[in-house]
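#onboarding

Welcome to the new folks! Below is a worked example of what a typical request in this channel looks like: someone posts a single protein sequence, and someone else replies with the predicted structure as tokens. Don't worry about understanding the tokens yet, we'll cover that in week two.

Example request:
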Amino acid sequence: MTKVGLGYFASAIALVVLSVGSSAAQPLTGAGSTFIAPILEKWSAAYSAVEPSTPIAYQSIGSLQGIDKLLSHSVDFAASDAPLNLTQLDQPSCEVLYFPVTLGAVVVVYNLPQVPATASLRLTGTVVADIFLGKIRKWNDLAIAGANPGLQLPDQDIFVTYREDGSGTTYTFTDYLSKVSSVWESGPGRGLLVRWPIGLHAEGNEGVTEAVKSQTGAIGYVELQYATSNGLPFAQIQNRAGQWIKASAESATAASASLIGQMPTDLKQSITDAPGQGAYPISSYSYILLFKNETEAARSAALGKFVTWVLKDGQAFAGALNYGTLPSSLVSSAAEQLKIIQLAATSSGTCKTTLGLAPHQTEPLIIHDEEEEKNLSVE
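Example response:
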């Protein structure tokens, strides 16, 4: 793939803006991932100072619902953390491009007041899988104690909490568990929605955070910023290299760096269980999704300018919110991909939306890979 600088694309966008009238207000709406919500809210506020005529309104409702809203043309962009090849996004007039804009970590949070705040609880991937499978039900189980010598663990029931809504955070977490546990891979599997064998449900990263905070003995999974901003402890996870890694912007960036040489041309890549020595194993890119074919020049220009700003200036906000900055080569590739967006002569029409499913429904998500299709089916 030929790389181009951000300045080249920004100049091209500027020409489009002049042609459609730069003085006209062009608000943008988006919806989806709660994983990305903290930094996207920061970007929206900062961008309003740069482009006051382009306010950004974002609904933090979960990746699945955000994609559904994009396909139904209810929003201008979606956000998701799941690099999936959904066939709903490949309809001729409804094709969607994925733009990685930040990266972060999913952490295993817990509520154990009996364990000192200064203690560093350690969990292996297989132990985490067995907890969420319901095979490990006590905090002082030998499998947990074995990884935490000298730490006094309580004889306390484990209360599992999971995401009820279709979630990129869930995809990242279950994608990791599927890589480190053959039992998990053959059971719940990976997906935006999976059949959880045990536990209580909550909605959004916000809901899981509150559920864990309110129940002694609880365990759950959330994006790192939700844990740190709420004072929730989270476990160190043993990575593929055998190192105990604490989630941070730096360890998520290390996961990205260890696999950047294998980045697909469509920029959709799983970076869970990455091979780097310092890589946090439950890391993920977060993406903004845009239609490949746009019907309105003003909206297309506004979206391009916003994504360009996020890829360049927006990265400066990442570290303070516990997100990782994108590798420079990926920024260039994403800028190049923006050039693929084109104006369509006619409306994109109605796109098939089978994504916004409640957990009790039976229709599967339609994706390219048959094995993933099985795992993404919902009850």
